[in-house]
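Q: Fold this one first, please.
A: Sequence and structure below.
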Amino acid sequence: MKKFFLLLLILVTSPPIIGQELDFNFTRYNTSQGLSSNDVSSIVQDARGFLWIGGIAGLQRFDGTRFVSFSDRLGSQNQILLNPIEKLVVDSRDRLWLLLSNGKVARIDADRRTCIEIKISPDPDNHFHPGERDLFSDSWDNIFILDIYKELLIYDEDLSEFRSFKFTITDDRPLRITGIASQPGTGDYWIAFENEGLFSFQTDSGKWSTKESAVSPWMIPGFPRSSFVYGLFVDSRNRLWAQEWLEQGPVLWCFDLPGQEVILSEYPLMQIINSYFVTGPIFESSDGHVWIGGANIFVRYNEEKKTFQSVLNEYRNDRSIYYKVITCIYGDSEDNIWIGTNNNGIYRFNPFAEYFTNVVHINRRTGSRGVGSPMSFMDMPDSTTLVATWGDGLYRYDRHWQEVPLRIENISDQNETTIWCMMKSPSDSLIWMCQQPAAIWSYDPRRKRAKKYETPILKSRSIRQMAEDRQENFWLGIHGTGLYHWKRHYQNLLETDLQRYPFISDCIVNKVLVDREGLIWVATDHLGLYVLKDFDQAPVMHFGAGEKEAIYILPENGVSAVLDYNDSIMIFATSRTIHLFNRKENSIKELGRNGMIKGFIAGLIKDREGFLWVTSSNGLYRINVQTRVFLQFDTSDGIEDTNFTLSSVYEREDGSLVLGGSEEFVVFDPAKIEFTSDIEPQITISDLRINSQAFPVDSILANNHVQLRYNQNALEIDYTTLTFSYPYLIRYKMEGLDQDWRTSNGNSAIYSYLPPGDYNFTMMAEDPDGIVTKNRSIAISIRKPVWKTWWFYCSLGLLGFTILYFFDRERIRRKEQLIIVRNEIAQNLHGEINSALSSINILSEVARIKVAKDPTKAREYLDQIRNKSQTMLTAMDDILWSIDPKNDSMVRVINRLEMFVAKVNSQNRIKIDFLIDPAVNDLKIEMKMRQVLVRLFKGTITNLAKIGANQLHLHLRHHNNYLEFLIEFEASQIDLQLFNNMLQRQDLKNILEENRLNLSHKILRSKGYIQLNIPFTTTVAAV
C-alpha cells in the first residue's frame, strides 16, 4: 500500500539478549538524503522549528523532508559562510550565531536574509597562545566565546562586539580558563581554570559586570585542585558534571549542588569502553537522562544503578548507529535526540517512545538465537506469558519479557514441542493447546499440570486451529484434511467423539472463530469462508470466488483471517484484501482498495479503541474502520521482524498486543502510540523556486505575501509541518486556480504556469485520523504584463483616439485642400473658358460683319475661332485628366507627357528626345502639381517650337527632393527677343510663385537650357 503518512517515529527496541548495551532504533541522514557532508559539527533548532546543521560543508537547513544549503542564499555575503562551521547557537531573538573554523563569529538575523561578521576584541595583555574556541549561550541569553587555555569573551549588544572578560583571584595569578557552565535558574556560574581546579562566580541575574570580577575557589570533596578539568555541565537537577583527564584516560565527577553530595568520584568510563576514547559533549534529554558523546563513546547515565550504559556502536541494519566521533548531541521540541558525527552524518532517535518491544527466543538445543516462528500466545494468572514457537518449543516470559523456566508438569523445560494454537476455555479455565503431530494438551495454570490427548484418526497431522462453541464442544482445523468436531470428554479423545465435518472438503484451515452469536466461521486456504451453525447442518453462508454454492463473491478463495469486530460487523481477509460483512444488512464491501496492503495478510486483531490492526508478510497496518485511514509500520518504526506469521495475533489482559513474526515477536500497547504531538504543527513553506531559481523564503514568511512579475509564473513550492517524529498529511490548494485539495507525497507543489492574478496558496495539515489541525495561507500576486493592464488599455485607447483624431483632422484638411484645389482649377477653367468664349464671340461677330464685305478677312477670323476652340478643348482635357484620381502616379503623368511628345514629333515641327529617370516612376504626384507640370511641359515645348527652337532633349529625374525638368535645345535660329518675352510672361510668373517653383535658363553659343525644379519627395501623396 502506498503510504498515506510517512510515519517517522523513532522507536526503542530492547531485546533481552543484548545484555547491558543499549540498543535504539536510529534514523540516519547522510549525503544520500541531501546532507552536504557526512562530517557534521553542530545542530540547533530555531523558533519556527527549522533544524540548522553546521559542518565541514557549511550551513544547511532541514525541514523534516529536505535539506537546503544556506551558504548560497545570502548573496555576496555568503563569503563569510565558505568556512567550515564549528558551532551553532540560537538566541531568544531567534538569531543564529555561527562559530567558524577560522575562529571568527558570524550572525544571521531572524529574517534569515542578512549574515554579518561579529567583531572580536581579545585582551591585548593576554599573551597566552590561543586555544580551541567554543561558542555557547546561557539561560540569561548571554553569548560567550570560550577561548580554551586563554580567555572568556562575552558579547556586548551596545558595542556589537565580543569583549574579553577578566577574572582575578587573591594572588593575582594569571588564569587560563578551560571550562564554564551556568546553573539554570540562578546567576551562578562554575568555572574551571587550568591546574587551578574549580571556581564559583556569581552575577546579578546573569548580568556580567564590565569590571574585573573575582571568582571564589570551590572544592568537591576529594577533588584535587591541581587537576585539569573541562567540559563542565549543570543538569536540571542542579548536579555539576565535570570531566577530568588523567593518565589512564577521562574520568567523570558529579556533584549535587543543593545537597553538597558527591555522586560520582573519578568515575572510570574505561570500564565500559574497551578501546581508546575521548569524552565530548554532555547532554540532558527531556526525561532527565544524561548522555555523553565523543570519540568512540556514546553512553547514558543509569540513575538507579549510578553507572553508565553504552549505546551499541555497530552496524547491524539500517536502524543501528555506527560512528567514530560524536561531535554534538541536541534535543528538539519533539523530544527527538539528534546525533552529529564526523563520518556518518546525522542520527535521530527518540528514547521516550518505547512503543515496540522485539523479543527473540533461544534455541535450547543450540544455545543460539531461535529461528522458529512464534505461533501463539497466552497470559497466565501469575503475570507470565506462554509463547509457542514452531519447532523450538514452548517458552514462558515474565512481565519484562525475560525468559523464565517453563515449569509445566508433563512438559519438559527443554521441550521442542510445536504448539500451533492456544485457547483459554471459558467453561473450565483450562488452557487448551494444539500440537504438531496431532495431539491436544489441556493445561491447568493453577496446578501447572498438562495432560495430553491423542487419537490415531488424525494420522499425526497438525492441528492448526481450535475454537470452543456454546455447547462446550471443540472445532479443530486440521492441516490438509479440513474441519473436525470434538464432542469433548475430559478423560479421552475418543474416535466416536471426533468426527470430520462432511460439508467442507479437504483443505488447510487458517482460522476457526466462534462469534458472539454462536456461529462458527471457518477460513480455508482455497475453498473460501464458511459459516456454520451446527455439526449436523450444512453451512448457512459461504463466501468464495466463482463457486456455485458461494452466496457472496470474493476476489479469491483463500481466506487468511476472520475477526468478530462488533455486534453488526464481521471482518475477514483474503491474501491482499480486507472485507466488511454487515450481518444485519447481509451486505459485504471492501475496506480500502485492493493492493493497499503490501504482502500476504496474516492476521486481524482489534484494539480497545476500535482500531483494526493487520499483520502481513510486509509490515503492520493500523486501520481506522470508520475513516478508512491506513497507517503502515515497518522496520523504520522499530519492528525488527515484519514478516508476520499466519494467525499469530493476541490481545493481552492489559490491552497490549502481541504479534508473531517469522523468528521473533513484537509487543506494544496501541494506546501509548502517539500519532500527534502536543506541539501544534507549524505548516510553512520551506523552499520556493521561481522559474527554477531559488527565491528568499524568509521574506515571504515574514510578510505572508509574495509579488511576482508576469514572467515569474513557474513555481515549485516545498512545504512542511516542521515535525520530525509525527505523521501529518499536508493537502494544498491554489485558491483561484485549483478546485479541489491536492496531495503530494514529496511535500512539493508544482505549478508550471500561473496566469496573472491574485492567489492564495493554502496548506492544511491532517493527522492520521483525518482531523484537520492547521491551515495556513500565503498570498501570491502575479502582475499582469504592461500590455494587459487597464491603464495600458486606457492609454492605448487614448492613443488610438488621438491617432484617429489626427487622421480625421488630416483627412478633413486634405479634403479642404482638395476643395481649394478644385476651386482653383474650376476658377482657372472658368477663366480660360470665359476668355476663350469671349474671344470666340467677338471674332464670330467680326467675321459675320466681314463675311459680306471682306470674305478673306472673315476666313482669318474663322481660323482664329477654330484655334481658340481647339486650345480651349485641349486645356479642358488637361484639366479633366489632372483631377482624375487614377492619374495620381507618375507613370500616368509620364505617359501623358510622352503622348504629347510623340504628337509633336509626328507633326515634324521639331525633333524631341525624352529621357526619364526610372526612379521617377515610383513617385506619387498630387492633383494640382500634376496639372502644373503638364501645363508647363506642354506650354514650354509649344512656345519653344514657335520661336524656332529645334533638336529638343528633355530630361526628367528626381534628385535632392526635387523633380528636375531640364530642356536642352538648338538655339541658333531662335528669336532671342521672343525667347525672353516667353519667359517673362506674367501668367508664367504667377504659376511659378504660386507653386514655389524655380525656373532657370541660359543660352550658351548655339545651345539653350531651361530647368524647372519642382519640390518633390518620394512620400508625396495625392490629395
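Q: Good. Now the second chain.
A: Here it is, same layout.
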Amino acid sequence: MIKNIFTERNYENAVLELFRDELGYETVCGYDVKRDYHSPLFVERLEKSLRKINPNKPTEAINEAIYRISNYESNNLIQQNIQFTNFLQNGVEVNYHLSGKNKSDLIRLVDFEHPDNNDFILARQWTIIENEEKRPDLIIFVNGLPLVVIELKSCFRENTDVSKAYRQLQNYMCDIPSLFIYNAFMVISDFTLSKAGTITATEERFMEWKTVDGIVEDKRYASFETLFRGMFDKKRFLNILQHFVLYSHSTEKDVKILAGYHQYFAVKKATQSTCNVINKTRNNKNKNGKAGVVWHSTGSGKSLTMVFYSHLLQNMLQNPTIVILTDRNDLDNQLYTQFCKCKDYLRQEPQQAVNRSNLKKLLKNRVANGIFFTTMQKFEASDEPLSKRSDIILIADEAHRSQYSFNEKIDSTTGKIKLGFARLIRNSLPNATFIGFTGTPISFKDKDTQEVFGDYVDIYDMTQSVNDGITKPIYYESRVVNLGLNESILKQIDERYDIISQDADEQVIEQSKKQLAVMDKILGSKQALESLCNDIVQHYEQRQERRNLSTEKAMIVAYSRSVALEIYNKILCLRPAWNEKIKVVITSDNNDPKEWKTIIGTKEYRKNLEHKFKDENDEMKIAVVVDMWTTGFDVPCLSTMYIYKPLHDHTLIQTISRVNRVFEDKTGGLIVDYVGIASAIKKAMKHYTQRDQEQFGDPDVTKTVLPKFLEKLEVCRALFHGFDLHKIFESKFIEGTDRDRASLIVDGINFILGNDDQKKLFIKEALLLKQFHLLCGSLLSKPQRFESAFFEAVRVAVSRTAADKKLSLQEINKQINELLKQSIKSDGIINLFTDVREEFSIFELKFLQEIAAMKQKNLAAELLRKLLREQVTIYQKTNIVQSMLFSERMELLMNKYRNGQLTNAEVISELLEMASDIIKDHDAGRNLGLTVEEKAFYDAITKPEGIKDFYDNATLIKLTQQLTELLRNNRTIDWQKKETSRAAMRSMIKRLLKKFKYPPEGVENATTTVISQCEMWVDQE
C-alpha cells in the first residue's frame, strides 16, 4: 500500500504554521492545558484578557461579565448564540454590588479598536465533554472565547471532503452544543476547497473567501491560504466579528448571516467613499454628494449588503440618518421587511414614510440616527427642502431607472414644467449624500444615473457570482413556436415595448398603451391561451417527473391581469386537482369583476401566499404573476419561469434572475420563453461585463445544454461498450413492464461493477448526464429520455452499492433496502428482489443467502463485500483481536478475487462463510455472559496459544470483568495523549494482571495484546 504523504494531520500542521508564522497567533495543544473539560472556554485567558481590555473596571464587574457569558436563561442553542453575539459586538451590561451600593457597567469582551490588545490563540485537539467527548480539529480563541471552529479534511484521502467536514460540525453541535454558544462562524476545508458559514447555514450557504486584499481576479478556485489569510488577519477578523456577522429574525426562524467576501469589500469601499464625500461637503470642497454605485449581480445578497452598509455607516459617521428609496411599493415593503429582520443588529427600528409630509416630519424630528423608507412618488408633490442636514445618506435601490433624471419636461397642453426626478430629490435633500445599489448594470441611455450617484464603487458580476456558488446559471428554452405566433406579431410586440420602455413623453406613452391593447387581444386570444396552457402543463409535468423533486416551484409571468386569470382558469380546467398547487398573485382594483375578487383576494391573503410559495414543502407550487414578485422576491426553490410577457432591459434581467438562487442540488434556473425574448436578453447583456456577455450572452439550451447532454450520452454509451444497449430501445423496455426494465437495469449494474476504474468514471459522467437532462429534457426524443433514465438508475444503484462511506447499521439497512427499488418513471417502482421486508438484519442468513442466489454475481459479491466490510470496521474500533482476524481474511479474500484467483461464485461462498463466523462470534460473547466490550477484553486475554491450559474459564471471565470495571472506573480524559497518564494506566492494568498471576511463565508477550486492547478501548471512548 502506498503511504499517504499528506494526511489530515499534515494539513492541520500547515494551517497551524500559517497562523503562527504569518498571522501572529499563539498556537497551543489542548492536551497541554490544565482546565475543566466540561467548559469550552479558555477560562484562564478569558479572565486575564477582560482585565486587560477593561483596565479601570472592578473585579466584581469582570466576574459578573464572566458569569453572564457562562450562564444563559434559555436552553435553545440559537437563542444562546444570539445573546452571546450581542455581548461580543456590543459588550456585556453588568450589575453588581460594590461597597454596599448597586452599580451598573459595560464590560467589553474584545478591544475592536486595538487588535494587538487582544489575545489570539489557535488551539488544536481541544477536548470538550458534554453529551459526548469530542475534540474538534482547530478552534480560534479570542480572549479565551472559542469564536471559530475549523474542521479539516485531507483531499488526498478518498471519500473525505468538505461535505464530510460539514456533517462532522453538525454532529458536534449535537454532541458538544456549549462550544457553539460562543461561535461566530465555522470553517470547513479539504485543502482544495475552503468555506465559511454560520451555525444556522446549510452546506450550500457555506461560501469561499476568494481574496486577501479585495482585489478579485477571474479565478474559479482559491487556495486554502486565501481564506485563512483573507479572513483571519487580526484587524480584518475583528472587523468581521464586529460589523459583518448578524442575525436576521423572522417568525419562521432566526438565521445567522456571515457576509461574503464580495459584500465585505463592497461595504468597505462604499462607506469610505461616502465618508470622503461628506467630509468634502462639510469643508465646502465638493457639494455634488455623489458616493457612487454598487453593482452586485441579482441574487448575490444586495439587500443584506445594504444592511451591512447602513450599520457600518452608523459607526463611522456618528449616527447619520439614512433614507432608502425605491420606485415601487412592493419593493419598498420587501426591502423594509429585510431591514426590520435585522433591527437588533442595526440597533434601531426602521420606519416607512406614509407620505411626503410624514417623511418631512420624520427627518425634522431627528438630529441623528433613523432609517426611513420611502418611494419616489413621495418626492413628486414638491421640491421644497425636506431637510438641509449634511449627514443624511440617501440609498437608491435599483439605481438605474430612467426616472433618475435631471431633465425638465414641459407639458405641451398645460405648459406646466415637470422636474426630472434627480432634480426633485436634490432639491428636497440639498446637502445629502447619494449612493445607488443595483442588481443590473447601468445602461448607456441611463447616463443620468451616474450624474446623480457617480461612478461604480464596486462590481460583482454574474460570472463571479456563479463561480462562487452564490447564484446558479440561467438557461433559456424557446417554445414560441408552440403557440403558433408568427414573426410579424412578435416584431410588433417588440417595437411597441421598445417605445414604452423609453423615457417617452406622456402623450407617446398613452398612444403606445392604446396600441398595446391590440397586443392584449392577440396574447389573450382563446387559441393562444389554450396552446399556452396545454404546453405549460405538459412541460411542467415532464420536468417534475424527470427531477423527481416535489419541493421545486415554477412561476408564470402573464402579459396582463386579465390574461393571468385566464391562464389560471384554463390550467385548473386541465388539472382540477391543482386548486391548491396553482395560485394567482396580482394586485386588485376597485373596478375588478366580482368573480375576480374571490381569486385575487385581499392584501393579507396575498401575504399568506408569499409565505406559502417561499416554503419549499408547501403544496403551492405554481404562481401566476404579472408584475408582483418579478423583482426583489427571493425564493431559492423557484427553478422554472414561463414568460408570456415581452420584457426589456433591467426589468427583463431582474425578472429572469428570480430563478438563479441556490437550492439543494438545483443545477440552474430555466426560462421558458413563449413570446420571443431571446433578442431582448442579448440586447440587455450588452451592458454587462465582457465575461458576463461571453458566459450568459447565449443561454439557449439548444446551443449550450443540449450539446453537452449528447456528449455525455455518448460517453456513457462508450463506458457500456460490450453491453447490449439496443435492449433499451426494445418495446419491452420502453413500453414493457417494470420487471422487464428491472432485469435490464440489474444487468447494467452487474456490468459496471465488473470494472473498478470504469465504475468510478461512469458514476461521474452519468451524474453530469443527469444534470444536463434536467435542463433540456423537453427537447429530447423518447428513446433519448429512456436511455438517460437507464443510465441514471444504474448510477444511483452503483453509487449506493460501491460507496465506502462508514454507515451505521440502520443506514446500511436503509440504503440496501433502497437499492432494491429503482424508479425510472413517476408511477413505476422496480423491485430487484421479491419477498423483501421493509426492515431486516444484514446478518439474517435468509437475507444473505437471497443476495448470494442473485443471477448477477458481480452485484451479489459487491453487496456482500460492503456489508462485511462495515462489520469489520466496527470490530476495528472495539475488538483488536477479532478485527485483525477478520480484516486479514477480508483483505486476502478480496485480493484473490481481484487477481482472478476466485470466481464470483467462490468469493460469494467465502464471504458467506465469513459472515457465518461473525455471527458465531456475536453469539459466543452472549453464551459466556459477556457484553460486547467485555468480549473484546476476553479475546485479548485468551489470544496467546495455550492460555486456557493454565486457567479455568471462570477465572478468565472474572479477570475480564474486573479489567473492564477497572478501566471504566478509573478512566481519565487525558490518557489518550499524555504519556504520563498512559503509563499510569499500564501500571494499573499490570497490577490487576499480577493479582491473577497473568500471564503465565513463558507467555510474557500476552501482556502486550491486553495493553493494546485497553488502549484501543480508551481511545474510542
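Q: Anything worth noting on the second one?
A: The longest strand covers residues 145-152.
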